Amino acid sequence: MVLTENVCSRLNRQFYTLGMSDPKVESPRGHDELRPEAIRLEDLRVFLAVAQSGSFRSAANQMFTSQPTMSRSIARLEGQLGVPLLERGPRGVQLTTHGEVLLSAARRVLTAMADLRRVVSTPGSRTLRLGATATSARTILAPFLSRWIPDNPDIHVTAIEDSERRLHSRLENGDCDVAIVSSPVSPSLDSLHITTVQVIALFPPEHRLAGVDGPVSVLDLADERLLVNGESFPSTGLLMRALDAAGIHGNVVYECSAGQTLAAIAEAGLGVAVFGDTADLRGFALRRHQLLDASGRPLSFDLYAAWIRDGVPSDIRNFAVELATSFRPPTGRAAAAPSPSMGPDPSS
């Protein structure tokens, strides 16, 4: 147990010196052996993701980075702590005894840092920071907050709009307390399912496919100009991968994060708009069709209310639960259970 106790001791001392990576800064008495580099919070996040997913590949996907980058972070941690943390085998990655100790300690450190950011950024007040894409902010957050804020007048709400790709990392970095994110959800987060989003294609009434009865296939879009959200959005990732699998080069002519803007451009006749069906399309003269891949499977992804797994205040957890359970799909859109169908690839 001597080495394991040393891991705890070193981690505690490293936590004391986090952020003091300037070699010109003199270490406190008893901490000289920690120079020249202190443990990085990002390395702890990487370790946590690998440990909880059991796979470098899965963890890399969840953190939107590469496997070599993950491996370098783990190697740096093992070098700084002086002990092996992970064992690689045919069934994936297993924690060593020292890794088990670090797993618990890393969770405490990351939770403490998230709490520190929250306390320092909002002294003397209660602020709830919510992360969402522009579409989720309008279609999910706005209706919910219109009811929730009047019942909670002592809490100031701040909205952080960002892309799907960045919301996961902003949540893990402590930039927001609750975020609406798509699957797969990082193992460092707790989450509740909000809704399953169907990817749809929208055509002006005069378009050749507007009168089709039922869903349309990506095969039907081979010669179409495409209007999409952007590569960091799940709907676009699903579309482009389905086109690639069918041997079709997608002709994307316009990208915009707002579904309503894409709908307006499609209505003007520039092309076919493709995005998730949570957008409010009232007032548009468009024909909407569910989009299928070449084998006939619906393109869809799941949205979750997510928050840091360990150490969050109960009011944050309660807010996320209420948000997830109170959502009602827009008129004309059926609710759906979570589906693994072609789940979004974070690298797209």
TrEMBL record:
Swiss-Prot/TrEMBL keywords: DNA-binding, Transcription, Transcription regulation
Family: Belongs to the LysR transcriptional regulatory family.
Pfam families membership: HTH_1, LysR_substrate
Top-level taxonomic group: Bacteria
Organism encoding this protein: Micromonospora carbonacea
GO cellular component: protein-DNA complex
Protein name: DNA-binding transcriptional regulator, LysR family
GO molecular-function term, one example from the UniProt record: DNA-binding transcription factor activity
Keyword set includes Disulfide bond: no
Record domain HTH lysR-type: where: 39-96
